[in-house]
């Protein structure tokens, strides 16, 4: 009897339902972005505390990736998708009921776990449900659901906070309704992990070691550091862009905060798509150049107190970040044996999300010691310096082991 996953059992509705679950879970992680200034006013905490609240989300993602990265291979895709949505719903419920800082901290950790669970399981489910000739399309759908959710959450939360009542309650009510719809949609999704595989697997809650095969370590490290630097900028934008707009530019506009961060995430998606057409030898150098340019634009916005450089910097940083991430994933898919790809991809994203969280806290420390403008300028300069160091390494070692092209459909 064949053990092939039931790709066509759910028809066209199943991939759409998985994509919706992916979108909703990721959207919930960025709903707080335009609301941070409001939480700061309501609960009376500092800008540094805002960065800690954000960083807890990224640390929750890292912990989830290390402890639960293989869970959907062991117990199936659908149970993990359901668990991710339930975690997203629990986080939204905590946010909606929040009346003090500890509620926010707990909610961010839960949303981080949910994001860690959904990223691998939804991507794998979409690939399982797609016929072999449509796997590249499935990858694109996964990318769109992931980055589209991150962009959509901050955008609709900003719009609701700006023009609807109850800005700290209504966005979460909408999130809970969407989560309920996504849970119902999973009824149309067949389990794609064969029963005999699930029966032969035992769930073990243990930290997954970060292993990178020696043959690709130099290329892996350069792509991870470049992508992580861009992720760090995105994290800072997510955490403090609302405060920057209000205190530096005098723009108390929640929808505008949502737009800034949404542009950054959408540009990351476009950057990952660009890797499919860029020459492999050009992708990472262009990403480094983009990081330097985006840092200069952000510094210009901070020093000049103007909005256009910030918007352009968010877009350029997103393009550079997506290009670096796509290059790293292409290196892994082209230079790592199939049985080692899962743990190597987990290591890659663990580096990215660690760099998303820790620098944000560092920026918070800088802001507390100086001010928002000075902290942002120092951080942007550090990102530009790191990008230049990576670029210098590329000049010394122009060719690296393993492929740096985007993964082809049959390699995913």
How would you sum up this structure in a few lines?
Helices cover 76% and strands 0% of the residues.
Q: Please, could you describe this protein's structure?
A:
By secondary structure, the chain is mainly alpha-helical. The chain folds into two domains: 10-195, Growth Hormone, Chain: A (Up-down Bundle); 211-406, Up-down Bundle (Growth Hormone, Chain: A), CATH 1.20.1250. The protein is 76% helix and 0% strand. It has 15 helices and no strands. It has helices at 13-30, 36-43, 47-68, 71-75, 77-97, 101-129, 135-163, 170-185, 195-199, 217-247, 254-274, 280-304, 308-335, 338-369, 372-396. Helix 3 (47-68) runs parallel beside helix 6. The protein is globular, with a radius of gyration of 20 Å. It starts with 12 loop residues before the first helix and ends in a 16-residue tail after the last helix. Residues 1-8 and 399-412 have low confidence and may be disordered.
Q: What number of structural domains do the residues give?
A: 2
- Looking at how many chains there are and whether they match, the oligomeric state comes to single chain
Count the beta strands.
0
Tally the helices: what do you get? 15
* Structural shape: globular
What's the main sheet like? none
The SSE string, one letter per element, is HHHHHHHHHHHHHHH
Kindly report the CATH topology of the largest domain.
Growth Hormone, Chain: A
**Helicity, as a percent range:** over 70%
Which percent range describes the beta-strand content?
under 5%
Question: Structural class of the helix and strand makeup?
Answer: mainly alpha
- Rg of Cα set: 20 Å
Query: Spans of 5+ residues with little confidence (pLDDT < 50)?
Result: 1-8, 399-412
């Amino acid at each position: 009897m064949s053990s092939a996953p039931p790709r066509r059992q759910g028809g066209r509705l199943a991939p759409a339902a998985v994509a919706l679950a992916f979108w909703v879970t990721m959207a919930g992680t960025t709903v707080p972005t335009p609301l941070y200034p409001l939480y700061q006013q309501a609960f009376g905490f500092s800008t540094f505390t805002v960065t800690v609240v954000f960083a807890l989300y990224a640390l929750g993602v890292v912990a989830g990736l290390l402890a639960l990265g293989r869970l959907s291979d062991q117990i199936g895709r659908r149970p993990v998708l359901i668990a991710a949505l339930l975690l997203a719903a629990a986080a939204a419920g905590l946010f909606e009921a929040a009346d003090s800082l500890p509620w926010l901290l707990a909610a961010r950790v839960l949303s981080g776990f949910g994001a860690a669970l959904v990223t691998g399981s939804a991507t794998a489910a979409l690939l399982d449900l797609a016929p072999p000739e449509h796997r590249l399309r499935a990858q694109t759908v996964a990318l769109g659901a992931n980055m589209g959710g991150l962009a959509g959450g901050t955008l609709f939360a900003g719009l609701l906070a700006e023009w609807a009542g109850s800005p700290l309650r209504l966005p979460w009510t909408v999130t809970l309704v969407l989560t309920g719809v996504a849970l119902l949609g999973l009824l149309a999704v067949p389990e794609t992990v064969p029963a005999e595989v699930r029966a032969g697997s035992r769930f073990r809650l243990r930290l997954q070691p970060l292993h990178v095969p020696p043959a690709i370590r130099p290329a892996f490290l350069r792509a991870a550091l470049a992508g992580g630097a861009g992720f760090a900028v995105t994290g800072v934008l997510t955490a403090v862009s609302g405060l920057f707009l209000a205190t530096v530019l005098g723009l108390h506009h929640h929808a505008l905060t949502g737009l800034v961060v949404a542009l950054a995430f959408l540009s990351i998606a476009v950057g990952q798509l660009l890797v499919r057409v860029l020459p492999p030898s050009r992708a990472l150098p262009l990403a480094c150049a983009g990081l330097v340019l985006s840092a200069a634009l952000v510094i210009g916005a901070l020093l000049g107190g103007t909005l256009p450089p910030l918007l352009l910097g968010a877009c350029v940083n997103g393009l550079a970040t997506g290009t670096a991430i796509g290059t790293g994933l292409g290196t892994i898919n082209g230079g790592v044996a199939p049985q080692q790809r899962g743990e190597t991809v987990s290591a890659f994203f663990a580096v990215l999300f660690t760099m998303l969280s820790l620098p944000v806290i560092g920026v918070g420390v800088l802001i507390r010691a100086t001010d928002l403008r000075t902290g942002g300028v120092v951080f942007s300069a550090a990102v530009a310096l790191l990008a230049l160091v990576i670029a210098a390494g590329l000049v010394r070692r122009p060719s690296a082991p393993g492929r740096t092209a985007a993964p082809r459909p049959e390699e995913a």
